[in-house]
Amino acid sequence: MTAQLVVDSLSLNFRTRHGTVQALDDVSLTLGKGEIVGVVGESGSGKSVTAYAVMGLLDDTADITNGHINMGGAEILNATPDALNALRGREMAMIFQSPRTALNPIRRVGHQIEDVLREHANIPARELRREAIAALARVRIPDPERRAKAYPFELSGGMCQRVMIAMALACSPAVLIADEPTTGLGVTTQAVIMDLIRDMSRSGDMSTLLITHDLGLAGEYCDRIAVMHAGHVVEAGPTEAILTRSAHPYTRQLLAATPTPETRMDDLIAIPGSLPDLRRPLPVCRFSARCERRQPICDEPPLAWAQCGPDHVVRCRFPL
Amino acid sequence: MFIARRIVGTLPSLLGVVVVTFLLSHALPGDPAAYFAGPAANADSIASVRASLGLDRPLPVQFLHYVVDLLHGDLGNSLTTGQPVLVDLAQRLPASLELSAFAIIFAVGVAVPLGVWSATKVNGPIDHASRVLVTVSAAFPTFFVGLLLVYVFYYLLDWAPEPVGRLNEINYSPPPTITGAYTVDALLARDWSVFRAALTQLTLPAISLGLFAMAPLARITRAAMLEALGSDFVRTARANGLPTTKIVFTYAFRNALLPITSVLGMVFSFLMGSNVLIEQVFGWQGVGAYAVSAVLASDYAAVQGFVLMMAILYVLLNLAVDIAATMIDPRVRFES
Amino acid sequence: MSFATLASNTRYAFGENRLTLIAAAMLAVMAICAVLGPILAPYDPLMTNAAVKLTPPNAAHWFGTDALGRDILSRVIVAARLDLGMAISAVALSFVVGLALGAAAGYFGGWTDAVVGRVMDTIMAFPLFVLAMGIVAALGNSVLNIIIATMIINLPFYCRFARAEVNVRRELGYVEAARMGGNTALQALVNHIIPNILPPMMVQASLNMGWAILNAAGLSFIGLGVRPPTPEWGIMVSEGASYIISGEWWAFMFPGAALVAAVFSFNMLGDGLRDLLDPRKRV
Prior knowledge:
heterotrimer, A: alpha/beta, Rossmann fold, 2 domains, eight-stranded mixed sheet, four-stranded antiparallel sheet, 10 helices, B: mainly alpha, 15 helices, 75% helix, 0% strand
């Protein structure tokens, strides 16, 4: 399968008033054509940072110390602003959580979609409005012609998310990054939105990167899953392998802490400890402090890398 | 409909303003009749003023008369000019309005672009320079700025004309009155030399008046733009590859207008107060100068008329700003 | 706030901002002038001397002399007491009355809030300097009335701030604890809430001082309150204004510069104090 998006050994730091945050270390991901890949981890694991890096949305406080990002042949990290703007919205697009605040509050949603079309699609001005309404219809918004005149505050959270999806997909990008698209939405709406994303992905042959803290959600919708912890990708592989034959202690603990229809709340086991402080000097394996299987050799560089199945890698000296 | 509600909402303010103005002049310490009769009065004239103004009646009755008079446009007569106060004010108002209008255009025209530029190039040289300028200029009294400008540009550099008011009446005569603004009327009469003369007379006073308003405007524009540029929806717009100009102007700036309009009320309050001071400095024949001589001459009806007129104008200005804000922000219209 | 945070904030407020230090120094100088004015002045500020009228700054008269031959430096120094005194009195009065009214409105709500709010709204419905002119015209042309007028127009500022701060704290844990511990509503308000809102209100006061000085100076510039021959910066600028067009700049420049220095210092001090409390509130 041809890789649509390749993140290769990406390491980056943030310069803040309270010190340098070592946000990402040696992060690698691949996204094939038409695939849905989930990036799963706790808050602060670096999954959103990776997404922002791919889109070129990081600001000046970010120092990229190593690595490449390649989007359909184009290098992202040293691209000019013009080159990035040409890619964003056309070849790659992103949707965010809290959809209502992610839309311009004083601009009608139809106009916001038209703004994207005007920039990237080659259609004459008088067709813009019709295309925007068509985009709304494609995300199954009822009565799209009337809804296009609405402001975000007049729409529900789920509707706003659909509008954002419509904006992102208006020019049929090759890659969609969805950063926690269903967080904050009701459970039924979550399912509807995720089904929509999956359908649009399949029908458009579009690759999707799904960022989420919900391993269950990723399990249901993704072809492959990458698990992140404290700026590392600790394990990556086909969904079925991750869910049933996970090799990293952290993944196992995540699974044990994720509710399913069969488990009871009492059965869930919280993961001990918390994420390490990324401003402090860090051990080679950033999970070692929380790991019951650690050995002295775990502290010796470099960070381990092992293959435990076709397309299934784990960064651990003692994979399960 | 919503606008009608806003208009009705100003009625309590208007009533409050009328009550306070009434109390200020009729609840004076000592004998109000003596004040209204003026410093040159004797016992007889004071008595006749007391009778004619009804100052011997109980206060609520006086208030009723006051309101009725107001509704008829009767603000009393000026001691110094002898004319009805309303006529005096109406004659001088266009001068003050013209001055204030130019001051606002100057202030907004400089402060807002400066604020936008500072926000888009944060911590750049323009940002630092404008922040210093704003902080320093906020410490200067308006009258001092006016005098400084006269000293530098009139006395030292000879660039500005003599600060004798709206027009140097020795060389120029005012254009035929249509709007009352000399610049506009001169343009309408196609009298280019008077237009230029009036404009040059306006420059220094308008700049002095506008400078004080620049500080809060530039500051709020910068802050509002920074907040808008850092917001979630601008991040979404960037993620969708929208061009920078569109993001800065259609997305960030329009949203920044909301906090900017909320500051306008305070800015107008400063402007109307500073107007009085600038008219003093430049010998401007507006209502401010009229009020100052009225206060010094203890011309009570004139002072009261001035305060009332300024207050009503201010309430209407705030109403206009309010309505403008609802045009910009559709959310306000839907607040029940 | 913990000592560590206060220490780090102080370092930020005064370290990263040398202006704050300069401002504090200027204020100290002006305070000394205000307190020791007549002692520091090289000449009697009221003594006229027609022979040296309108002389430019020289060795004998550092700031030059005015139209009546009085030494401007002496007058500027001595005027500090009146200018700063008027502003500080007005601000102090506004602060106390505004705090009382605002705290009551914020805490008790209901009728109190409605009435206080209505009064403050009515004051704010006027352009404030114009209202001050009206008040001085009504009450009489004196320094005391300048202070009263300045106090009245500053009142809404403190009242609204106090009301908002009290409102926020009214529902907090320690207030409830105080009530349950047997304090009456008034005791809870006075002993627990008000001490907590004093620091942010002090910041507001120092930010407001500059404006109070400008207002008082503006009123005296147009001839209200202060009469000649009293030395006061506003009236000195007014007296010196007529001589600009003949080039005698020192008469208006030095008192004007003193005003700028005073307002600037208070503004910087206010910014510095605000950073001391919470640097994140910078705009």
